[in-house]
Amino acid sequence: MHSLLGLSDPPPIYYDLTLPPATILTRQCHSLSERSLSEPATNPPLSCITVVVLDLPRGGTIVVTASRQHSFAAISDVLNEIHHVLRGYISSADFHALPLENRRRVKSAYDARCNRIRDTRAYQEEKRQGVETVDFLMGLTKFMGLSRTSSEVDVWLLNVS
């Protein structure tokens, strides 16, 4: 895994998974450069990788494929696809399939995410849209990096805190 995406403490990048990848900062508080974002996510470069996210409904897998600009899955492809999946909406059935305590924790994460929004119109829109997949992380939305899940080269675990 590329050093910007690999698991470490402190993480190589500062990324709150509730926000778009454009908000990511390096340890030096700089935005990621287009050059960095275009680098292969893995070494050797792979055209497709799978990211496993624990505690998500229906398996919690995110398949990242190479964008049209590259023949490999780039750092930007990984970050954008994680964001896209985590900001997706969940069904009422998925929410109600959780144990009661976890439903409370998901609801609390949803409320906290919405309450950070200062613009009244944006807040109301976010509340109206409801619980998102990222809320299943129950407030653990700090990106800590990706780590290998098994001997499979193309499967990685999303680590959060």
Structure summary:
The protein is an alpha+beta fold and 161 residues long. It is 29% helix and 16% strand.
Characterization of this structure:
The protein is an alpha+beta fold and 161 residues long. The chain has one domain. Helices cover 29% and strands 16% of the residues. The chain is built from five helices and six strands; from the N terminus they run ββαββααααββ. The strands form two sheets. It has a four-stranded mixed sheet, covered by helices on one side. The protein has a two-stranded antiparallel sheet with strand order 1-2. A hairpin with a 6-residue loop joins strand 5 and strand 6. Helix 4 runs antiparallel to helix 5. The longest helix is centred in the C-terminal third of the chain and has 16 residues. It is globular, with a radius of gyration of 16 Å. The two termini are 19 Å apart. The model has no long low-confidence stretch (mean pLDDT 92).
